[in-house]
Structures
1.
Amino acid sequence: MPIYEYECLKCGKTLEAMQKFSDPPLTQCSHCKGELHKLISMSTFHLRGSGWYVTDYSGKNQSCSASKGEATKKETKASTGEKTAAD
């Protein structure tokens, strides 16, 4: 069940409530009986383990592309007779 955060418009207190998706939102503060406003909270969803883009593919494409690009530049310069900075 998700945890929802509410803020009281009267006293400013923040409270958390574990509710089902189908439950109606809370409307009254338990401290001062003021009106509650539902807050948007940061998600705590994390992709862990292998099999996700972040862990398996994100860095490989960049490093492979960079090294292939460098090799292609060196081959092109070698075939045209240009000198590289390393030469």
Note: The two ends are 64 Å apart (CA to CA).
2.
Amino acid sequence: MNRGDIYTITLKKGVSSVLYGKRFAVILQSNSMLPRSVVIIAPTSQSALHASIRPNIEVQRQPTKVMVEQMKAVSIDRLGKKVGQVKAEEQWLIDDALFALLDLN
């Protein structure tokens, strides 16, 4: 498991606009902090509206948005199959979104 890996995940239904259901998850956590029993991920959405903090990536030849504003810690047991890895350019966009979201300068 490495930062930028993409896994399948099924998120439990939560409240209002929190993502749930079957989707992909991008590993956000630093490689130096992996492997752990809990990992920080960002879920993806193919139907979410465009926003500067929702970078576009391609997963299995399908465009999807990384929902960094909904990042969360999950047990690695909840991750399904690894389906890919974000490209370097996509990782830069994810990093920029995280910097903006968390006001890291």
Note: DSSP finds one helix and seven strands in the chain.
